[in-house]
């Protein structure tokens, strides 16, 4: 029986934007028997550059995943290293819910002693500080470094490869040589186009969070594992429709 996985893009983007996010997951890496659907949120944040945007991402990722179980999906994946809405969706749903930040950071700890997060701009540092604190992994972080380049969350890195990739490589080398990182984690699923370039040039493992998350999702489904409902108890009263009826733009 086919397993259906819903992957939620946390920023409202058009069809081309969704397509660019979908390209992080090559068809050949999707096992037979899996049907993957990338879906953009209907409303919400613009850049994830502030606590204001963080709140909007939590809200609308949560809304986009709310009915996933009723829609027949077997799992939900969140397409942002901020893991927006992760714990709320685990509370609301019985099907497994995965975040790339949580998975990539823990996998980095399996591959080395210290890891560095390499990202587009300093404005995303607050996202990693929040999740690393929540997961208790601050002591495993060698550094956070950025290339101070405003991200394009629709077109991503397309057309900017010659400049962006070299900047990311330089900051990664500094993280390795100066900060003591022995694993590099890309700070955003929107940076997936740089993964092959960096993997070939850096002397340590490089993690592409969205791809790592998806493969772990397959493994967990095949093992019959999901989040603990003791850790993420379901609400006694559900107010889904009332909460979002005035917030979400109707199609």
What would you say this structure looks like, in words?
The protein is α/β, with parallel strands linked by helices and 251 residues long. The chain folds into two domains: 131 residues, Rossmann fold, CATH 3.40.50.12500; 108 residues, Rossmann fold. The protein is 39% helix and 15% strand. It has nine helices and eight strands. A four-stranded parallel β-sheet has the order 2-1-3-4, with helices on both faces. Strands 6-5-7-8 form a four-stranded parallel β-sheet, with helices on both faces. Strand 7, helix 7 and strand 8 form a beta-alpha-beta unit.
Can you list the strand order of the major beta sheet? Answer: 2-1-3-4
Shape: globular
When the domains are counted, the total is 2
Low-confidence stretches: none
Tell me the name of the CATH class of the largest domain: Alpha Beta
Strand % is: 5-15%
The CA-CA distance between the termini, in Å, is: 31 Å
Question: Can you tell me the CATH architecture of the largest domain?
Answer: 3-Layer(aba) Sandwich
* Main pleated-sheet profile: 4 strands, parallel
SSE arrangement, N to C? EHEHEHEHEHEHEHEHH
**Structural class assignment:** alpha/beta
At the fold tier of CATH, the topology name of the largest domain is: Rossmann fold
Radius of gyration: 18 Å
């Amino acid at each position: 029986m086919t397993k259906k996985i819903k992957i939620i893009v946390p920023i409202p983007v058009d069809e081309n934007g969704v397509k660019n996010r979908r390209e992080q997951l090559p068809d050949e890496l999707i096992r037979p028997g899996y049907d993957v659907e990338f879906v953009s949120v209907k409303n919400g944040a613009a850049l994830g550059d502030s606590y204001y945007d963080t709140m909007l991402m939590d809200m609308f990722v949560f809304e986009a995943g709310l009915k996933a179980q009723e829609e027949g999906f077997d799992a939900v994946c969140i397409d942002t290293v901020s893991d927006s809405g992760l714990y709320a969706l685990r509370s609301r749903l019985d099907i497994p819910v995965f975040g790339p930040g949580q998975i990539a950071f823990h996998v980095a700890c399996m591959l080395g002693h210290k890891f560095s997060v390499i990202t587009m701009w300093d404005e995303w540092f607050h996202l990693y500080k929040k999740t690393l604190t929540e997961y208790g992994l601050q002591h495993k972080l060698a550094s956070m470094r950025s290339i101070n380049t405003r991200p394009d969350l629709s077109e991503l890195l397309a057309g900017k490869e010659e400049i962006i990739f070299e900047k990311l490589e330089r900051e990664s080398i500094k993280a390795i040589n100066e900060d003591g990182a022995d694993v590099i984690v890309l700070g955003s699923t929107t940076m997936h186009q740089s993964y092959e370039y960096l993997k070939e040039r850096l002397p340590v493992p490089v993690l592409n969070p969205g791809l790592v998350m998806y493969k772990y999702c397959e493994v967990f489904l095949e093992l019959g594992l999901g989040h603990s409902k003791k850790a993420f108890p379901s609400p006694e009263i559900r107010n889904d429709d009332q909460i979002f009826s005035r917030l979400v733009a109707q199609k």
